[in-house]
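Memo subject: From amino acid sequence to discrete backbone structure tokens
Action wanted: Derive the backbone structure tokens from the amino acid sequence.
How to read it: Take the token row as a discrete description of the fold.
Attached in line: The record itself begins immediately under this heading.
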Amino acid sequence: MTNPRSLSRFGGAMYLLIIVLGVFEELFVRNRIIVSGNATQTAANLQSMEFLWRLGIASEFVLLTSAVVLTAIFFVLLRPVSEFLALTATYLNLVSVAVEVGVGLNLVQALFPLGKAEYLNAFTPEQRNALASMAIRSHAIGFGVALIFFGWTALLLGYLIIRSGYMPRPIGVLMQIAGICYLINSFVLLLWPALANRLFPTILLPSFVGELSFALWLLLRGVSLEAWNRRVPAPASFPRLVPRE
């Protein structure tokens, strides 16, 4: 069996990488290029900072690959508490990742109308700018849908952490708060978009605190081996098989 402390520290490093990449994409790529309500300026920024936009897309898929690995680590670490709930959290998180992969292609699609292909002459510059902004908006909505599945994942992870005995209960509570905030943000985005603009990003600050706390605890402390051994019994030895005469 893999050492749970080493595994948890590796998971913490992966989780921290995911958070850093997510902050980079949101603050240093999309916030710098996208001008809310101004398709023309957004298109101009995309053309002048195309490499930065592509770098953000590449980092997005590195993030999602890391998320798949982290999902497997969470399953191994939390399976002793409840295999069914750990497996459910795994499936929910994989659905979230799959949705993010799909909507991530919209970030690539945003560049297509702004290219130099001849067929694009069928559109006016205003139409091309609008198509690019629509692709970006589709990504934002799709990302919100992905966070619905991750919100349920965070709720389950928080419950398993609280029940584990080898991870701190406050971290579990913070993860459950993070899940609730993700769910509120995503459903408000779908049902009342105008209200979502007022809530974001404040509604997600507790989520950031919860996930960052979990990542840092995994990286710096890791699972308590003593508590782990109390929860996970040693594997039973198999009887020696003696061939019949």
Observations:
- The radius of gyration is 22 Å.
- The mean pLDDT is 90.
- Residues 4-227 form one domain.
